[in-house]
Model the fold of this input.
Amino acid sequence: PALVVDMTRTRFCDSAGLRVLVDAHKQALAEGRAVLLAVPAAAVLRVLEITGIDQAIPHFASLDEAVTHAAESAG
Done:
């Protein structure tokens, strides 16, 4: 099962937040799982794009989209 991170109320994400996301992603991969991000804020998405995290961790525009994707992936 995937871990869905609800960032729908997040307006700012610094290096500490990015580190937590990357660490969670690495841990999930080691366990055969995935981390999915629900990130509608353009400013937060921009930080993910600049750092390349958007290429490693799937992200969705809404929590509903992320949860739906997680449920479909779980089969």
